[in-house]
């Protein structure tokens, strides 16, 4: 009986998910930050504006490896500005996590530590503004 209980306890622990110290960014913050910094181009529904601003709903970039989308937010791309100076790691993680879980997208949240590690690897300084930074 004891081996079965141990097996069940181990299975429950493995399925429990990340520890509380690794909690996902606050979805409300991500939605607010997206509305303030991204929705003018990518639209509140994530569909973008065809021919001008790409859709994030169903986007391979949005739901793919977090590092690529994180780099786009940190460095910009094409006509998109960078947010490395105006959004801190937690803000960028919150926006990315919101996008990855909205409009039918189903991808794991992004942790602020992941953003910070990439910011360091790209040799970008910390953000000078944070929490609901100005819209670019």
TrEMBL record:
Residues in Cytochrome c domain copies: 25-103
Record has Cell cycle as a keyword: no
Record-linked PROSITE patterns: CYTC
InterPro entries xref list: Cyt_c-like_dom, Cyt_c-like_dom_sf, Cyt_C_IC, Cytochrome_c-type_DH
Keyword Transmembrane helix: no
One Pfam family recorded for the sequence: Cytochrome_CBB3
One GO molecular-function entry: iron ion binding
SUPFAM superfamilies: Cytochrome c
Keywords on record: Electron transport, Heme, Iron, Metal-binding, Signal, Transport
PANTHER family associated with the record: BLL4482 PROTEIN, BLL4482 PROTEIN-RELATED
Protein name: Cytochrome c
């Amino acid at each position: 009986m004891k081996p079965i209980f141990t097996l069940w306890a181990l299975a429950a622990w493995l399925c429990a998910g990340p520890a509380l110290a690794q909690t996902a960014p606050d979805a409300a913050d991500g939605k607010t930050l997206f509305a303030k910094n991204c929705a003018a181009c990518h639209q509140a529904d994530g569909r973008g504006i065809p021919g001008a601003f790409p859709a994030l709903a169903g986007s391979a970039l949005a739901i793919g490896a977090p590092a690529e989308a994180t780099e786009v937010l940190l460095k910009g791309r094409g006509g998109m500005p960078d947010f490395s100076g105006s959004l801190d790691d937690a803000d960028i993680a919150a926006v990315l996590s919101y996008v990855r879980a909205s409009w039918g997208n189903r991808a794991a949240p992004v942790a602020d530590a992941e953003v910070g590690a990439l910011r360091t690897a790209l040799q970008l300084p910390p953000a000078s503004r944070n929490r609901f930074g100005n819209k670019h």
